[in-house]
Structure formats: structure tokens, C-alpha cells
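Predict the 3D structure for this chain.
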Amino acid sequence: MMQKNILVYTTEIYNQITCLLNFDENADSDAIMQISELGCDFINRHFNIDLSFSFSKIFSNIIDVPVAYNQAMSVLKYQRLLGIKEPMQYIDKKGDCYEHT
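Done. Predicted structure below.
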């Protein structure tokens, strides 16, 4: 992430690792997803941890962090319910829905 000038803030909330990615508007969201997937794969292989992740929509205001967290958690619950391992992102088009990346 540092190679793409993306700052990652990490904390633990309710026994889950939560990350906030801070990047400028020139960052490519597809590249961020690919980097995240590579990191997840590395951790899964080398540390024998079953790790999955999800993303909220991209927000530009810090006041929207709780909304972003709730969106990402909603996607993660959906993934777990259906047994989906691939990363997914919250998309809001005429109601709540999710998208495989």
C-alpha cells in the first residue's frame, strides 16, 4: 500500500481487524483491491490464517467513517452467510447490493 501512497490505519473492533485506507482521489480502486487480495493471499498461505475482507464505498469525508464501517460489515456478513471467499465491495445502486471484485 505504501508504494501507492495509501495510508492504512488498523485497529481491532469486536475481535476483528479493521483497516481504514486513506488515499488521494488519483488512486485506482481496482489496484487497491488487487494489492489487498495479494496481501490476504500472502497471510493465508504463510500464517495459516483464514482471512477474508470486504470494502465499503469510497468516502471523502472523515465523518462518513461509521457509515463505511457498517457497509463493510454488512458485506462481510453477506460473504460469510453465502461462503464467499472472494473480496467484495459495497455498491449502492437503487438499494443495497454487493459486488464481487
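The CA atoms of residues 3 and 70 lie 28 Å apart.
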